[in-house]
């Protein structure tokens, strides 16, 4: 979701950069800037900071779970490897 107040501010700044001779249509120009900015940003695949943070937390939990599973598999492989060596020695 795009914060429209930021777009308004940016459009205002852009219209302030227009040469003095063209400033009669400043309000219209400001609206055009805002429309162009909204249109351009809407085409981008952006997410909100909140959505980003949620996905970041999910990724962190997933990474922690993966590391835990890797440790468990390593321990099981170690046990199986140790059991196989004992079985081999018995035969």
Strand content: under 5%
Tally the structural domains: 2
Structural class: mainly alpha
Strands, count: 0
Q: So what's the overall shape?
A: rod-shaped
Q: Percent of residues in helical segments? A: over 70%
| Total count of helical runs of at least 4 residues | 3
Listing every helix as H and every strand as E from the N terminus to the C terminus, the arrangement reads HHH
Distance between the terminal alpha carbons, to the nearest Å?
69 Å
Which ranges are low-confidence, i.e. pLDDT below 50, for 5 or more consecutive residues?
none
Rg (CA only): 30 Å
Largest sheet: none
The overall average pLDDT, rounded, is 82
Can you put this structure into words, describing what you see?
- It is a single chain.
- This protein is mostly helical.
- The chain folds into 2 domains: 1-46; 47-91.
- Helix content is 79%, strand content 0%.
- The protein contains 3 helices and no strands.
- It has helices at residues 4-16, 26-42, 49-90.
- Helix 1 packs across helix 2 (26-42).
